[in-house]
Amino acid sequence: MKLNKALFLLPLVALSQHLVASVTISFEFEALRDSSGIPLSGDTYTILVADSNKDSIFPSPSDLLGAQLNLGDDIAGNRIFYSGTFNGSIFDDTAASLEASDLGLSDNTEIDGTRWAVYWFPGLSSAPGASGLQQGQNYGFFHSDQIDPTAQAFGATASMVMPPDGTQAQTILYFDTETENTSAPSVQDFTADLTVVPEPSTLLLVGLASFAFLLRRRI
Prior knowledge:
Helix content: 10-25%
Shape: globular
Radius of gyration: 19 Å
């Protein structure tokens, strides 16, 4: 079966006291989907973020509200270190040379162990601009600390965690259960099923439901 895969190579440069060490990450996944689980075919703005403060917490829906999503931006302690367009097969930009500071880390901090994740925004073909992400914008998120068993059979050697400084190559592969076997991550891992702070009308309905519940308890 022919796989529709996204592949990008990221040479990561770690700055130490005496040496600039090069790290290459190869990340490959089969599909990005919209909120209905349908594979995306048009240009979709995609970013990679590093957990710069290493608290294992990536940007939430409320963190993303108003975010401009530009390369180098910091969102709640997470640095955008790559931005590009996913067009259903490959990213338009496939390489970036980074130093620790590009990940939001100080120059003497080891890149090793920094988690990173992928975000994609159906309906956006580029960064949202000065107005930032608006309420109700749909988006997808994927991160894993584990090597998928199926991907391992294809040559995966690492999870979505930065390798030690000086490592020459790491390969990360993730697939989708609609075209791979059931040991792969579920389709939900690749579905844009999150929303940047619900629309005001949705919040109103939630508020009315809560009021009705409290009123019922008082009666």
